[in-house]
Amino acid sequence: MTQVRAGGGATARAVVLERFGKPLELREFEVPPAPPGGLVVASRWGGICGTDLHLQQGRLPIPTPLVLGHEGLGTVTELGAGTERDANGDPLAVGDLVMWASSIACGECVPCRAHREPTLCENRRTYGVNRPTTEHPVLAGAWADRIVLQPRTTVVRLPAEIDPVAAMSLACAGPTMVHALYERRPVRLGETVVVQGSGPVGLAAAALAQLAGAGRVILAGGPHRRLVIAAKSGIADHRVNVVDTADPAAALAQVLELTGGQGADLVVECTGVPTAIDQGLHLCRRGGSYLVVGQYTDSGDTLVNPHQIVHRQLDVVGSWAFSGAHLVEYVRLLPALVRRFDLASMVTTFELTEHEAALDAVARGAVLKAVFVS
Question: What's the pTM value of the predicted model, to 2 decimals?
Answer without folding.
Answer: 0.94
